[in-house]
C-alpha cells in the first residue's frame, strides 16, 4: 500500500485586522517615541493604538523588537520619499529639496536616541533598511552633483546630520510648537548646498561611515 505524499501547506497569511493592529501599534509607538523618548511605557502605546497589551506583546515580544520596527519603518518611509523625489522631479536639485523636507517630516531626529540604545544595531532587518535608504540618498545627491547643482564638498552624512539637527526642537521649547519653523530653516540649509559654493567648509565631507565610527 502506497503512502500518500503529505501536501505542503503555505503558512497562513496574517488576517487583515491583525495587520491593521500591527500598523496602529507601530504608528502609535513612533508618535510617542517622538514625544516622550524610547522609554515610554508599552501600555501607554497600546492605549494610543487602541489595542490591548496582549496584542502589543503578540506582535512585539519585547521593547527592543518594537523600537527596531519603528526605526525600520521610519527608514522605509524615508527611502520611499527618496524614490518619489527621484521619479517625480525632473530637476535634480529639486529632487534633493523634496527629499530633505520629506525626511524632516518623518522626524528622523527622534531615531538618534533609539539607534544608540541597547538593541541589536546589526539586526538583518535594520541593516537592510539602512543600506536601502543610504543608497537612495546617495543617488539623489549624485544626480544633483552630476548636474552641477550640488557643491562637491558634501556627502550623505552632512545632509542627514543637518536634517536631524534642524528637525529637533531647541532645549526648553515645545516640540510641536517648533515644527512650524523646521522647513524654513531646512530651506536655508538647502540654499547653502547649491553650487557654486560661496565658502570653503572646514574639515572633510561627512559620510555615514564617519557617523558610525566610534
Automatic annotation (TrEMBL):
List the stretches of this chain annotated as a DNA-binding region. 41-60
**Top-level taxon of the source organism:** Bacteria
Q: Which PROSITE patterns match?
A: HTH_TETR_2
* InterPro entries noted in UniProt: Homeodomain-like_sf, HTH-type_TetR-like_transc_reg, HTH_TetR, Tet_transcr_reg_TetR-rel_C_sf, TetR_SbtR-like_C
HTH tetR-type domain ranges (all copies): 19-78
Which keywords label this protein?
DNA-binding, Transcription, Transcription regulation
Q: What is this protein called?
A: Helix-turn-helix domain-containing protein
Amino acid at each position: 500500500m502506497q503512502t500518500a505524499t503529505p501536501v505542503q501547506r503555505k503558512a497562513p497569511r496574517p488576517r487583515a485586522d491583525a495587520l491593521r493592529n500591527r500598523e496602529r501599534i507601530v504608528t502609535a509607538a513612533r508618535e510617542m517615541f517622538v514625544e516622550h523618548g524610547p522609554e515610554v511605557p508599552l501600555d501607554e502605546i497600546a492605549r494610543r493604538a487602541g489595542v490591548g497589551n496582549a496584542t502589543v506583546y503578540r506582535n512585539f515580544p519585547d521593547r527592543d523588537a518594537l523600537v527596531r520596527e519603528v526605526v525600520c519603518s521610519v527608514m522605509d518611509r524615508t527611502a520611499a520619499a527618496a524614490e518619489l523625489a527621484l521619479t517625480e522631479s525632473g530637476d535634480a536639485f529639486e529632487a534633493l529639496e523634496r527629499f530633505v523636507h520629506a525626511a524632516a517630516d518623518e522626524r528622523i531626529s527622534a531615531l538618534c536616541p533609539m539607534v544608540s540604545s541597547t538593541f541589536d544595531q546589526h539586526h538583518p532587518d535594520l541593516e537592510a533598511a539602512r543600506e536601502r535608504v543610504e543608497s537612495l540618498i546617495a543617488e539623489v545627491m549624485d544626480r544633483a552633483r552630476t548636474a552641477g547643482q550640488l557643491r562637491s564638498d558634501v556627502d550623505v552624512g552632512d545632509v542627514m546630520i543637518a536634517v536631524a539637527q534642524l528637525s529637533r526642537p531647541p532645549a526648553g521649547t515645545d516640540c510641536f510648537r517648533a515644527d512650524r519653523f523646521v522647513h524654513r530653516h531646512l530651506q536655508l540649509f538647502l540654499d547653502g548646498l547649491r553650487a557654486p559654493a560661496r565658502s570653503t567648509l572646514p574639515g572633510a565631507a561627512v559620510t555615514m561611515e564617519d557617523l558610525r565610527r566610534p
